[in-house]
Amino acid sequence: MVHNGIVVGEGWNRLIGQHDATAHAEMMALRQAGKVLQNYRLLDAVLYVTLEPCPMCASAMVHSRIGKVVYGAPDLKTGAAGSVMNLLSYEGVNHHVQYQGGVMETECREQLQAFFRRRRSEKKAEKEARRAAQSSDSSQEN
Ligand SMILES: [Zn+2]
Prior knowledge:
Shape: elongated
Strand order of the largest sheet: 3-4-5
Order of helices and strands: EEHHEHEEH
Strand content: 5-15%
Structural class: alpha/beta
Helix content: 40-55%
Radius of gyration: 19 Å
Bound molecules: zinc ion
Largest sheet: 3 strands, parallel
Number of helices: 4
Oligomer: single chain
């Protein structure tokens, strides 16, 4: 999150670590920026994010009155900046957030894919370790 050329907030997904379904990267950046600027209204701030925001984050951006969001990859499942729905400039809402998608889209998509690939292999390794521990437990019982 950039305000007047200065980074005032950053974030990454913390859902699991914080046991918080709202701990998306964008929400974390909005919270930090509000604390730094001592204002929930983040007028003229620009948020840069790898993936198109979801409905919750898009709505929070409207509530925060940020000026613009720039994202890399579109989210064709839950994107709320035009892919599935557009909550950033919803008719009848008093603040519209400008947005620009597809910025460094390939790099952002590769970063996201690498993250999920790593997560899948970590989960697979955990599952195999658990299975190995269980089978050594049961072999000791016999
Ligand atoms: Zn989100």
